[in-house]
Write a structure and sequence with these properties.
By secondary structure, the protein is an alpha/beta fold. It has helices at residues 14-23, 42-51, 70-79, 106-121, 169-178, 196-206, 226-232, 252-265, 304-321, 334-339, and strands spanning 3-8, 27-32, 35-40, 57-66, 92-99, 131-138, 141-147, 187-189, 245-249, 271-275, 290-293, 326-331, 351-353, 356-362. The structure holds S-adenosylmethionine.
């Protein structure tokens, strides 16, 4: 039986995630602030976790009912078919939010739902449980979902070195898609830090599934079928194997860390990292592609003034040496983006990132 599957997305990038989901064969039902709703069953839940580069987490909606007071919540929570999703031998924890509802005390709601699960299904309730139930009470409508991901999906299991201000893998993948990257062109990140854009790009090009090397909460659910999931885990046919994805940084530690991250991700064969300040950046041999960069932010690392010359130098180097390439710049500061002097298209919507709002500024072919 099909149900709603909610993909959590960074606010501002919902449409890009919906595009990815459609392209990968999911039935997109609608967009909401902070996510995308699909329709599907457990196989789609597994596949969404394993195959979507851009989703932050995947929630399976297992029940929905009205509750105007706690006794009603208690009664209706006991009627939920918990056994269809949860296992009695696997501990569970519950988290609740409430908004515009008569039940306004989230903790009391959590307590009722936990008690219902414990008494009706027999599962233990524990703070460190591998499975989490998310209850949302909005306008007296209670929506019960299972978090099928566990750890946030940006944790692919490869990036042990994170550097100073890493971008999340999920967000990097969505920005790459927003910049028109499909895996069929080379990529250069001249300030690569931990190598996120380069590694994500290489994985997309090689058809490697983002969830191939990690564990998921869905493995602890009643619906889990290890054989079915093993098949899903197989790599897709690569889009390309003869393109290269390059990362440069002036910081030797970043280059070493990015190289190690790429090796752990299994993409060393198509990636190359080298220590180089921006001034020494050279266009790689071969066809033009995409320069994707996330330079130091205004107001986060260092202050803004020296950044004007850095962004200016970036624009100059790209205009002089990267004819025919497109550029994508992720930054929180439109003034700095403008200081590149590049012919920027209207930017994408603001996206929350570690306390900042960043946007993708991109160009057509230079
Ligand atoms: C915001 S971080 C990039 C983070 C990266 N996207 C990641 O996911 O890890 C900016 C990077 O720019 C590098 N950088 C700053 N000035 C540079 C320059 N002049 N030439 C090359 N790299 C530079 C820093 O060393 C830092 O790693």
């Amino acid at each position: 039986m099909d149900f709603d599957i909610f993909l959590v997305a960074p606010p501002g990038l919902e449409t890009i995630l919906a595009d990815e989901a459609r392209e990968k064969g999911f039935a997109v039902k609608g967009l909401n602030p902070g996510g995308v709703t699909l329709t599907g069953g457990w196989p789609e839940v597994w596949r969404a976790n394993i195959e979507l580069n851009g989703a932050t987490r995947v929630l399976a909606r297992i029940a929905e009912f009205r509750a105007f007071h706690l006794a009603q919540l208690d009664k209706r929570a006991r009627k939920v078919d918990w056994a269809a999703a949860l296992r009695p031998d696997v501990p569970v924890r519950v988290e609740a939010t409430t908004k515009h509802s008569k039940i306004y005390h989230a903790k009391a709601a959590v307590q009722r739902i936990e008690r219902a699960i414990h008494e009706e299904l027999g599962a233990a309730i524990s703070k460190d449980a591998p499975v989490q139930i998310k209850a949302r009470i909005d306008d007296n409508l209670v929506t019960i979902s299972v978090d099928t991901s566990g750890e946030s999906l940006h944790k692919r299991g490869h990036k042990l070195f994170t550097g100073k201000a890493p971008i999340r893998e999920t967000m990097a993948a969505l920005f790459l898609r927003q910049a028109g990257f499909t895996g069929a062109e080379p990529l250069v990140d001249p300030m690569c830090g931990s190598g996120t854009f380069v590694i994500e790009a290489a994985e997309i090009a090689l058809g490697l599934k983002p969830g191939r090397d990690r564990a998921f909460a869905f493995e602890h659910l009643a619906s889990h079928d290890p054989d079915a999931v093993a098949v899903r885990n197989k790599a897709e046919a690569p889009i390309t194997t003869n393109l290269r994805f390059y990362g440069f940084d002036r910081d030797a530690g970043a280059v070493k860390g990015a190289t190690e991250n790429a090796a752990r991700a299994g993409v060393s064969g198509v990636t190359a990292f080298a220590r180089a300040p921006l001034s020494e950046l050279q266009r790689p041999e071969g066809p033009p592609g995409l320069v994707m960069v996330n330079p130091p932010y205004g107001g986060r690392i260092g202050d803004r003034k020296p950044l004007f010359s850095l962004y200016g130098a970036l624009g100059q180097v790209l205009r002089d040496r990267f004819k025919g390439w497109r550029v994508g710049i992720v930054t929180n500061d439109g003034g700095l983006a403008k200081a590149t002097g590049l012919p920027l298209l209207p930017p994408g919507p603001p996206v929350a990132h570690g306390g900042l709002k960043v946007k993708l500024y991109r160009t057509g072919s230079l």
